[in-house]
Amino acid sequence: MAFTGAAGVPAPANGPRGRPDECGGHVVRQNERSGWLTSPSGVCYPPQPWQLGGTLVASVFRVPVRELPPVLAERVPERTRPVVVGGAALVAAAFVHYRPGGVLHYDEVLSCVLVRSGTRPRGTIAHIWVDSRQSRAGGRELWGIPKELADFSRTATGREITVESTVDQQVIASVRARLGPRLLPGWPAVPFATAQRLDGTDTVAHNLVVGRPRLLRAQWTFAEAGPLGHLAGRRPVLSLALTNASITFGLATTRSAARR
Fold first, then answer.
1. Could you give the C-alpha distances from 228 to 23, 54, 103, 245, in angstroms and in order?
2. Per DSSP, what are the bridge partners of residue 254?
3. Is 5 exposed, middle or buried (0-12, 13-18, 19+ CB in 10 A)?
4. Tell me, what's the pLDDT at 30?
5. Which of 15, 86, 143, 212 has the largest CB neighbor count within 10 A?
6. CB-based contacts of 77: which residues, under 8 Å, 6+ apart?
7. Tens of pLDDT along 176-233?
8. DSSP conformation letters of the chain
């Protein structure tokens, strides 16, 4: 599957990936050479929407509201609250491998809490790590997603996928997964929205994923003393994979000053 930019033109795979000062500048501005933007720290990243493709493995956990990480309160926008069922929130953990061919290629691990704004369901990403400085800068600047950097070790053989993420050689999370049969024929398209608060701004981004959903057997390990420790020892209520996925992030975005 080929991935193209917003104008239908093949996008560069990760663009200028080298030194942070390759694009120069200390404000977010257009880069004349590539059409990319530049973060305050001088890291280039693609403008929205991002066209990405790859494989996702995810599990959903029930977490009692009282055990949700305190940082979640800092990530949820105004008038947005976790969806609570039987005193527990629904938290998804996922590893995503974005392969070459999209605007960026990188690995990420994240936790996302199902929230609602009125009756509208959304997801708030409480924790996320990537191994691309471009993805980190763009995610934070465009959509208020609190991306940080991590290292990843990934192997995929047949239907078996093993991934581990570490920061400063300390494990954050790992998963051993086995892909199961397809759940639906064709290529279902699922719209979803993220709702984030970061650096005094509330951001809602509308996105679309198209892929082949499959059953998944997943064995997760989370560092009990780490940022995802609230998931340690829990059994998933649902595990799914998306293969050959095409993800469009940032189809439409709204921003407002954060208030409480």
1. 34, 24, 28, 26
2. 204
3. middle
4. 60
5. 143
6. 117, 124, 195, 196, 197, 202, 203, 204, 258
7. 999 999 999 889 999 999 999 999 999 999 999 999 999 999 999 999 999 999 999 9
8. -----TTSSPPPSSSS-S-GGGS--SS-EE-TTTS-EE-TTS-EEPPSSEEEEEEEEEEEEEEEGGGS-TTHHHHSPTT-EE-EETTEEEEEEEEEEE-BTBS--EEEEEEEEEEEETTEEEEEEEEEEES-HHHHHHHHHHH---EEE-EEEEEEETTEEEEEEEETTEEEEEEEEEEEEESSSS--EEEEEEEEEETTEEEEEEEEEEEEEEEEEEEEEE-TTSTTGGGTTPPPSEEEEEEEEEEEEEEEEEEEE---
Distance CA 184, CA 214 (A): 8
Return the closest-CA partner of residue 190 out of 213, 215, 174: 213
What residues contact 116, with CB distance under 8 A and at least 6 apart? 80, 81, 82, 83, 122
Q: Which residues of the chain have pLDDT under 70?
A: 1-34, 260
pTM: 0.88
User: Tokens standing for 132?
Assistant: 């691309």
Which residues face 124 on adjacent strands? 113
- Pairing of the two strands 147-149 and 120-130: parallel
* Residue 202, phi-psi category: left (phi > 0), alpha (psi -120 to 50), beta (remainder): beta
pLDDT by residue (tens digit) across 107-119?
999 999 999 999 9
Bridge partners, residue 204, by sequence: 195, 254
For residue 1, give Cα distances in angstroms to 8, 101, 156. Answer: 14, 8, 19
